[in-house]
Fold this protein.
Amino acid sequence: MNVKSTGFPLIQSHRLEAPQGSFMENVEVILIGEGPFILFDAGYPECVPEMLSWVESRAGGALEKLVLTHHHFDHSGGAKAICERFGVTAYAHPLEMRLLEEEQPGLPVSPIREGEFVELGEMRLEAILTPGHSPGHLSFWWKEERILLGGDNVLLPSTTAVTAPRGNLGDYLESLEKVKKLAPRLIYPGHGPVIEDPISRIDELIEHRKMRDAQYLEALEAGHDTPAKIAEQIYQDLPEGKRKLGACVIELHLERFVKSGEVACADGRYSLTTGPL
Ligand SMILES: [Zn+2]
């Protein structure tokens, strides 16, 4: 069991190792408060026993609610177990509630919307809508301490998967800018270590997307005219599964260029409209 000391007793983040073959290596579940407590995210379904025993050891029976940053199974897989064990309700953005209903029918979920607060004594965390990775993805802002529970919006060292059909690259980039404006001092992410220099990390992530944009346009100019062909060209070293995911990412980048008029698409084939780069 890997329990991190965060230096902030009001926030405890616990890392659950991902089951074999998962896209991410681990996921964080975060407990806030000194008693009672609120849990943010509930981990993989495969990690339920470890997650429950961690929450029990830290919170005892004093868990007030579960809040989900988004519906993905690596964050919500243990939700039902938490709700049943502690008799609590889960909270999620209405757009995520719909997806949770499809994937986990019977899970008790109540809505939490942008601008609403998760309150625990004097601690108030504001729900900030940060879509892109998922349509109703929420981050939670503790303004007094300038700490953000960031879900999957800002990660380190990995980057966030923004893929079709539910991901949206334009929304994702706007969410990064939105979080940058908050000027957080620390971000507790959904995967990986606490981010101690959030602004530089956000800048890096924005730069990374721009670099990818340039790469994809170059590949397009060289005649690779579908996301799959571009992925084959750029992600030669990746295993097939990840290359396929790469193609989904490329599709979103290209679709954004189609909207802005720089790229045209006909019968699934893409081409530049602005001449050579
Ligand atoms: Zn996710």
Observations:
- Residues 1-6 have pLDDT under 50 and may be disordered.
